[in-house]
């Protein structure tokens, strides 16, 4: 595993991190979850990313991690970075969602209890709240760090100007923003429209979620929808209707990868990691085999300048 410095901080993150979203709740057994985390750790993947509502059902992923801490992972607590977030719907009523101080800090306390942890390494505001003053949301992150419930603060899915304001507020409070988490892949280029430049200027690390576009950029859907895939599971996040418009471009990318002696999965991850502003690519592997395949991208050479130029033309056609 290769590690990159997260912005201007002292933290190094693995180039491949493991997200525990729809691959780590009650849809898998404790033994399957343990095998996934153990394989990740053996591969040098030292960053595990969660949120309060990850599962399914909401909270199940954190609860499963708590079980695994009791099954032996607590021994390695100081060798891993564990992050969680709050800001999406978690419980009913006026305090179970968005970015109020009440929601963020109550959610963090619940997360710590589920995971059986004294602190998380990174606590994120999961999304900006248009109805709550940014000062209140950021103030809750500051409290989380200053109270010892988190070591670092992060933001997720904040557009460039709002991210810049959030970073300024955190800096003024003596709790610099460590990291920004955003969707970035060959089918989603919007971070190149100002966000990556903002992170570079602010000295903030970047972690790209969905670098494989929920499996679309593995090529598994080119010949249809496999029965064991996420698209076949009834997921509202990936449906056949959403797959159809992507097939032509994914087929072209697959052909490009083969022409250059690469696998499509490895090409997609290498493409995300070509940017210095991207500290880590956050994958959502569901099996040990998928995890190993993604980590193998680091055995392939980095993209050449010629490959990057050709891909830039292909992706913007």
Question: What can you tell me about this protein's structure?
Answer:
The protein is an alpha/beta fold. Helix content is about 40%, strand content about 15%. It has eleven helices and ten strands. The protein has helices spanning about 30-40, 60-70, 100-115, 135-145, 160-170, 195-200, 240-245, 245-260, 265-275, 290-295, 305-315; strands spanning about 5, 10-15, 15-20, 45-50, 80-85, 120-125, 150-155, 175-185, 205-210, 280-285. The strands form two sheets. An eight-stranded parallel beta barrel has the order 3-4-5-6-7-8-9-10, surrounded by six helices. A two-stranded antiparallel ribbon has the order 1-2. α4 links the parallel β6 (about 120-125) and β7 (about 150-155). α4 (about 135-145) packs across α5 (about 160-170). The longest helix is centred in the middle third of the chain and has 15 residues, at about 100-115. The two termini are about 35 Å apart. The mean pLDDT is about 95.
What is the topology?
Layout: E1 3-5, E2 12-14, E3 16-19, H1 30-42, E4 47-49, H2 60-70, E5 81-86, H3 101-115, E6 120-125, H4 134-146, E7 150-156, H5 160-172, E8 177-183, H6 195-202, E9 205-209, H7 240-243, H8 247-259, H9 264-273, E10 280-283, H10 288-295, H11 305-315
Short description:
By secondary structure, the protein is an alpha/beta fold.
């Amino acid at each position: 595993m290769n590690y990159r410095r997260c912005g201007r901080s002292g933290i190094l993150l693995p180039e491949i991190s493991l997200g525990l979203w729809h691959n780590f709740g009650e849809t898998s057994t404790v033994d399957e979850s343990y095998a996934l985390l153990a394989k990740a750790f053996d591969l040098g993947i030292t960053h595990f990313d969660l949120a309060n509502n990850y599962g399914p059902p909401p909270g199940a992923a954190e609860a499963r991690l708590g079980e695994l801490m009791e099954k032996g992972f607590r021994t390695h607590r100081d060798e891993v970075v564990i992050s969680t977030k709050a800001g999406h719907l978690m419980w009913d009523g006026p305090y179970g969602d968005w970015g109020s101080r009440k929601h963020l800090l109550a959610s963090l306390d619940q997360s710590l209890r589920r995971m059986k942890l004294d602190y998380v390494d990174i606590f994120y505001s999961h999304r900006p709240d248009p109805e709550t003053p940014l000062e209140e949301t950021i103030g809750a992150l500051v409290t989380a760090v200053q109270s010892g419930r988190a070591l670092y603060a992060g933001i997720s899915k904040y557009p460039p100007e709002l991210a810049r304001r959030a970073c300024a507020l955190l800096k003024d409070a003596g709790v610099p923003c460590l990291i920004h988490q955003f969707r970035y892949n060959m089918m989603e280029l919007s971070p190149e429209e100002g966000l990556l430049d903002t992170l570079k200027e602010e000295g903030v690390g970047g972690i790209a979620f969905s670098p494989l576009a929920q499996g679309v950029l593995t090529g598994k859907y080119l010949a249809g929808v496999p029965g064991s895939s996420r698209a076949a599971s009834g997921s509202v996040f990936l449906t056949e209707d959403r797959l159809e418009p992507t097939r032509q471009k994914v087929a072209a990318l697959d052909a490009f990868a083969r022409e250059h002696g690469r696998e499509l999965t490895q090409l997609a991850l290498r493409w995300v990691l070509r940017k210095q502003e991207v500290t880590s690519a956050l994958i959502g592997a569901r099996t040990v085999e998928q995890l190993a395949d993604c980590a193998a991208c680091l055995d392939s050479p980095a993209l050449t300048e010629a490959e990057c130029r050709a891909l830039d033309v292909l992706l913007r056609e």
